[in-house]
Amino acid sequence: MFSKKPKYTASGQPGRKALSDHDFGVLTEIDVKVTMKTKLDVEMPAYRILGACNPKMAHQAIGIEPRVGAMLPCNVILRKVEGGVEVSAIDPVASMQAIENAELTAVAGDVRDLLAKAVAAI
After folding, report:
1. Helix 13-21 to helix 102-121 angle, to the nearest 10 degrees?
2. pLDDT tens per residue, range 40-92
3. 30-33: long-range pairs with CB below 8 Å, 24+
4. Is there a contact between 11 and 34 (Cβ–Cβ < 8 Å)?
5. Which of 2, 51, 1 is closest to 26 using CA atoms?
6. Vertex 13: Cα angle to 28 and 113 (nearest 5)
7. What is the value of pTM for the model shown?
8. Terminal Cα-to-Cα distance of the chain (whole angstroms)
9. Distance of CA 88 to CAs 41, 51, 67, 74, 105, Å?
């Protein structure tokens, strides 16, 4: 999934708002640009990773398969590209394919739908 909206910056704020509006919280936030500069003294364009979680869906998924926590949260990336910011997110259905469980796949489909709406809203 991805969307490109030049009017936004890669600050993460529009992403946080859109995720919140679709019942996701941001559990983690990594400013990759700052990390690469600090750790490797390397310059790069703005790049931020938001670790998004829908608590209700996460609880449901963990109840179905306790080991699914290794695949949570859903990462959303905001990165500076020519002309704006590209927003992309993991496909929860694809990431859950490692666990063969139809009930879990159904929950992942619901998460994908909500996440797609949030990404489109950024």
Report:
1. 130
2. 999 999 999 999 999 999 999 999 999 999 989 999 999 988 888 888 998 99
3. none
4. no
5. 51
6. 70
7. 0.87
8. 12
9. 26, 12, 25, 11, 21
Look at residues 86, 84, 89, 113 and name the one whose alpha carbon lies nearest to residue 26.
89
Residue corresponding to tokens 């890669």 = 10
DSSP class of residue 121 equals H
* Residue found by looking up tokens 């529009």 in the block: 14
| Residue 80 CB partners (closer than 8 Å, separation 6+) | 10, 45, 46, 47
What b/e sequence results for 35-55 when a residue is b if at least 16 CB atoms lie within 10 Å of its CB, and e otherwise? eeeeeeeeeeebbbbbbbbbe
Instruction: Compute, in degrees rounded to 10, the torsion defined by CA atoms 21, 25, 30, 31.
Output: 30
6: DSSP letter: T
